[in-house]
Design brief:
The structure is a single chain. The protein contains 19 helices and no strands. The chain is globular, with a radius of gyration of 21 Å. It is an all-alpha fold. The protein is 87% helix and 0% strand. It has helices spanning 2-11, 13-66, 69-78, 84-115, 117-120, 123-129, 131-138, 141-146, 150-171, 181-204, 213-222, 224-248, 250-287, 289-315, 318-324, 329-342, 344-361, 365-390, 392-417.
């Protein structure tokens, strides 16, 4: 019977969707493996640290421009696929809101870069990094996830990373060229995203004249609290490299970035799995609460086991991994202990991403917002304190402590909801 189920799954559309989506996302996992060693070889660890600051700054701005589209936007598309008028209205309203926010926050970001001394010292690189924000604004992946069009998501990912990798390898040839790395990342996303948007407009026959300015303004008002929580969550993910750079310098930030890049491979995988399975979890829970929960438990349990095995393999091959990333022999001795400590992060992140799916599927954004804000504020203060007391290991210990806090908080909230929903 189990063999029959496995055979049926292999032949199912869901299995093929996962293979197609996974193939495209594999490019996201491979690109750092190509880019990081090359950048360290050409620009050094200090250059990588500066790139990390620009990358993190752009992603923090991205959150304001995305404005909840990858959560509520995807969920609304996924649950209204049989209603073309509703899908058209959401597409136009969300992109309209994102355009307004893009214009405003690009100006704010440019003002911050030109006035804050820490950012002004690397002004050109940070301004060029904002091209990533334009690329993310155009990126229609949030919509494609909702309609579960994983083929086009794969096309966009492959083209995006291909252009990015080619740009870096062709034009980053000396240490000062580090300023162009994030720029090519953004250019790589802009081109295929434009193609994707044109495809969606033509395929669905969206009428751009139906755009309503008032609807976009109302969306901005409605999604504000969720977006604030996402900004805090982004700060939790991407501010650490800025803090390390500010307190410890670009070279140490580069060391942190080497480890973070490897850990980020797992984070990217977990985010990829989240994005792939989240619409289906929403649909399943919307149909049948109990069966939807069982579906969530099964797929996330299998995924977590895969992550754990991969982490174990990397843990026992730490020197080989660091050598591959062009870390010199002396730094390998120093970074090995930090690296092994950092590998604990994906273990906790796997749980965090999984439980967060339930929080969103049950529309518990009220609690999610507050947990995220409290956790991020506590994390930033704790990280600064432990960074001063313990050095680079303090940054990873602070992250582990806050991940545990977030997981416990999610479970407490879901336990309270158990009286209202049978899960």
């Amino acid at each position: 019977m189990n063999l029959e189920k496995i055979s049926h799954f292999i032949r199912s559309k869901k299995a093929w969707d996962f293979l197609i989506y996974g193939f495209g996302q594999a490019v996201n996992l491979i690109s750092p493996v190509i880019i990081v060693p090359y950048v360290i070889f050409v620009c050094g660890e200090a250059g990588l640290g500066k790139i990390g600051v620009g990358f993190s700054f752009a992603l923090l701005v991205n959150v304001w421009v995305d404005y909840g589209s990858y959560i509520n936007g995807t969920r609304e598309i996924a649950t209204n696929t049989s209603n073309p008028d509703q899908i058209e209205e959401r597409f136009l309203t969300i992109y309209g809101a994102k355009f307004m926010l893009l214009c405003f926050f690009l100006l704010v970001a440019a003002l911050i870069i030109s006035t804050v001394p820490f950012f002004r010292s690397d002004c050109t690189q940070l301004l060029l990094s904002l091209v990533m924000v334009v690329g993310q604004f155009l990126n229609p992946t949030w919509f494609l996830q909702g309609v579960q069009n994983f083929a086009w998501i794969t096309v966009i990912n492959i083209l995006s990373k291909g252009i990015y990798i080619a740009g870096v390898l062709l034009f980053v040839n000396q240490s000062n060229d580090y300023i162009y790395v994030n720029f090519f990342n953004g250019i790589g996303l802009i081109i295929p995203s434009l193609i994707g948007i044109i495809y969606l407009i033509q395929k669905n026959q969206f009428n751009l004249r139906k755009f309503k300015f008032a609807s976009s303004i109302q969306l901005i008002r409605n999604e504000f609290s969720l977006t604030v929580s996402q900004v805090f969550f982004a700060a939790y993910q991407f501010a650490p490299v800025m803090i390390v750079s500010y307190f410890c310098g670009n070279f140490v930030a580069g060391q942190y970035r080497v480890i973070e890049h490897i850990v980020m491979i797992f984070r990217t995988y977990l985010q990829t799995f989240f994005n792939f399975i989240y619409p289906e979890i929403c649909v399943q829970i919307d149909k049948d609460n109990s069966k939807g929960f069982q579906f969530w438990l099964k797929v996330n349990g299998i995924n977590y086991l895969i992550v754990f095995v991969l982490i174990a393999v990397i843990f026992f091959n730490t020197p080989i991994i660091l050598q591959f990333f062009k870390v010199n022999a002396h730094d390998i001795t120093v970074l090995s202990s930090y690296f092994k400590l950092g590998l604990a992060l994906p273990i906790f992140m796997g749980l965090t991403f999984a439980v967060r799916q339930l929080m969103f599927a049950y529309n518990s954004s009220y609690y999610y917002v507050r947990i995220t804000i409290i956790a991020t504020i506590a994390y930033l203060f704790l990280m600064i304190f432990l960074l001063k007391q313990m050095g680079l290991s303090g940054a990873f210990i602070a992250t582990i402590i806050i991940e545990i806090f977030i997981i416990i908080s999610y479970f407490v909230i879901l336990k309270k909801m158990d009286s209202k929903k049978s899960i």
